[in-house]
Specification:
six-stranded antiparallel β-sheet; 2 domains; binds adenosine-5'-triphosphate; OB fold (Dihydrolipoamide Acetyltransferase, E2P); Rossmann fold; six-stranded mixed β-sheet
Length: 366
């Protein structure tokens, strides 16, 4: 499924990374021929584990790093060699630096001042963005008099006040405590909707990515694993890596062999009619599994395991079950039968809840 914003294209994508590679002087390859294109108005999240290349991709886009190979186009124009200040992008980085001796209002106004915007207009725009970010009462303070969350919001205001067409944010919520992070996340989502600008947002937090992104680019070792709307990433992960990265807990997987229409792994056998013989990885999400005492269900259905650990995560319970040499997580409603360690159980799922991945390259098999 393509994103609704990207259908029936008559003009080039707003932002286009075309085979971008970044090799650092010490030989580290941070990006391998990264292709990524998206439209104006999107909220693109770069998601991946530590070291996957998220920050590098963002810095290359900003012009703070020069790619080793590849092109960057903005609205159809090649900007690969353009210095950052000429790219028209607003930026908020993890270590946002506010000017300590200037007030909040002066900090926010700074990008307007250097662009020669007249004082009255500057004041009008600072007030407007301050209201959006609930900073009105703080405009006369200096950065040292702000909480971490307020300072972070000032940095966001400063990046947005001059209305750049593209706003880059690298882990902008990282310094906030959990509650403030949640609150600021909601504000960012509202801001994106209100301003109608294009956001690129770096995070390693999948929940943040799922709630904010119109599309998520999942990176791994400098390569793009999948670029799709959050629901598609969850429903149809393109690779085993994405399947095992997304979800709380992530998708359960099991490596085995298909022989004559049956999938077999260490102690597990289930019919898989039509599947070609050979190695295969199957996967099922914890929330798509149901548990029954091992003896009760039809013997041909699901797989058998043994309860290992039971964890209460209200309103649900996570039951960890040993299946074929690995542990599968099962998410059940908290008030169901209390499963006990050591109990043999049978796990069931609907036929369409089963995912299949190539045992070699990890690609999804439909
Ligand atoms: P994190 O979530 O930890 O910030 P990331 O996904 O943003 O990680 P990058 O910071 O883009 O990852 O780094 C990608 C790879 O490039 C890593 O292996 C990192 O060590 C390496 N790297 C980044 N900057 C440099 C540099 N200046 N010189 C050499 N290697 C670098």
């Amino acid at each position: 499924m393509s994103h609704p914003l990207s259908t029936s294209r008559t003009r080039p994508p707003f932002v286009e990374l075309d085979a971008i590679a970044k090799h650092f002087a010490d030989g580290t390859v941070a990006l391998h021929a990264l292709d990524l294109a998206f439209d104006e108005g999107e909220f693109v999240v770069l998601l991946g584990p530590s070291g996957s290349g998220k920050t590098t991709a963002c810095r290359v886009l900003a012009g703070l790093e020069t790619p080793t190979a590849g092109r960057i186009r903005l609205d159809g124009t090649d900007v690969t060699r353009l210095p950052p200040r000429l790219r028209g992008m607003g930026m908020v980085f993890q270590n946002y630096a506010l000017y300590p001796h200037r007030t909040v209002a002066e900090n926010i106004a700074y990008p307007l001042r250097i662009r020669g915007v007249a004082a009255a207009e500057r004041e009008r725009r600072v007030r407007a963005i301050a209201t959006l970010l609930q900073l009105d009462a703080l405009l006369a303070r200096r950065p040292a008099q702000l909480s971490g969350g307020q300072a972070q919001r000032v940095a966001v205001a400063r990046a947005l006040v001059w209305e750049p067409r593209l706003v880059l944010m690298d882990e902008p919520l990282s310094n906030l405590d959990a509650l403030l992070r949640l609150h600021t996340r909601t504000e960012l989502k509202r801001l994106h909707r209100t301003l109608g600008r294009t956001f690129v947002f770096v995070t390693h937090d999948q929940e943040e990515a799922m709630t904010l992104g119109t599309r998520i680019a999942v990176l791994r070792d400098g390569r793009l694993e999948q670029f799709a709307p959050p629901i598609e990433i969850w429903r149809r992960p393109a690779t085993r890596f994405v399947a095992e990265f997304i979800g709380r807990p992530a998708m359960n997987t099991l490596e085995g062999q298909v022989r004559a229409g049956r999938f077999e792994a260490d102690g597990v056998g289930l019919p898989l009619p039509g599947a070609p013989d050979g190695p295969l990885v199957i996967g099922v999400r914890p929330e798509h599994l149901t548990l029954a005492p091992a003896g009760e269900a039809a013997a041909h259905d699901g797989v058998v395991g043994v309860v290992d650990v039971v964890e209460a995560v209200p309103p649900d319970t996570l039951v960890m079950v040993r299946v074929g040499g690995v542990t599968w997580a099962v998410r059940v409603a908290a008030d169901t039968v209390p499963w006990v360690t050591g109990a043999p159980v049978r796990l069931h799922w609907a036929p369409d809840a089963l995912h299949r991945f190539d045992a070699g390259d990890g690609r999804r098999i439909d």
